[in-house]
Amino acid sequence: RILEHLSEIVPSMRGWGPMWNLTSDSTFLDIGSGYGKVIFHTKMRTNCRRALGVECVTARHLIAEQALTKLQEQLTDEEKAADSLAGLQLLDEDATNFEDMHFTHVYIFDRVFSRHTLEGIAEVLQRSDWYVMISSKGPRVWWSCGLRKAQPVGRIRFVTTGKERCTCFVYINAQFAMSAAALM
Fold first, then answer.
1. Cys bridge to 27: 36, 40, 68, 103, which one at CB 3.0-4.6 A?
2. Are 27 and 50 in contact (CB under 8 A)?
3. pTM across the whole model
4. What pLDDT is stored for residue 182 in this prediction?
5. If pLDDT is split at 50, 70 and 90, which confidence band does 183 have?
6. Which percentage of the chain shows pLDDT scores above 90?
7. Which one has a higher pLDDT value, 120 or 8?
8. DSSP character for 155?
């Protein structure tokens, strides 16, 4: 829900317009997607064009694949007719090995990521086009890992689908923001 209303919820983003919000025109990337709960909720709630969950722990990925099968079986006729899960994909891969990740919205459940993993993800995201990123890591961590275009615009507290209380930072891609401002 937070990503759907960023330009309303994050004080520094008020009035920025809907392009920053997660909508049916958006693409969503979940790095560290675990059992798939966030990616499933996001796809079903927003009907975003594409939703990709990347998980490098094979056992977790397999559970997510099983959950996806169960979810597909439980869709209503209306949801099946609307092809509610079209564009949803789960990958059993290491996100640090990607050449780039061009998604409008990036969510990273990085609370347990090692410094090495953060540096690898930072390198990929620095090469990538994205609008918004949410991470539990603060700006100094990302900047020291090489993700220099991540500009913090807010901090939010929420409860994860696993019932964990979490504080995350909302970032925008400063390079994209400057380009968008020039067009206005």
1. 103
2. yes
3. 0.88
4. 45
5. very low
6. 66
7. 120
8. E
Report yes or no: 87 and 49 within 8 Å, Cβ to Cβ: yes
CA distance 176 to 129: 8
Residue type present at position 157: R
DSSP 1-68: -TGGGHHHHSGGGTTS-GGGS--TT-EEEEET-TTSHHHHHHHHHH--SEEEEEE--HHHHHHHHHHH
- Rounded Cα–Cα distance for residues 61 and 151 (Å): 31
Q: What are the structure tokens assigned to 53, written together?
A: 């969950």
HSE (side-chain half, CA atoms, 13 Å) at 64: 26
Q: If you compute the radius of gyration of the chain from its CA atoms, what whole number of angstroms results? A: 16
The helix (H) or strand (E) run that includes residue 143 is: helix 139-145
Q: Rounded CA gap, 29 and 48, in Å?
A: 11
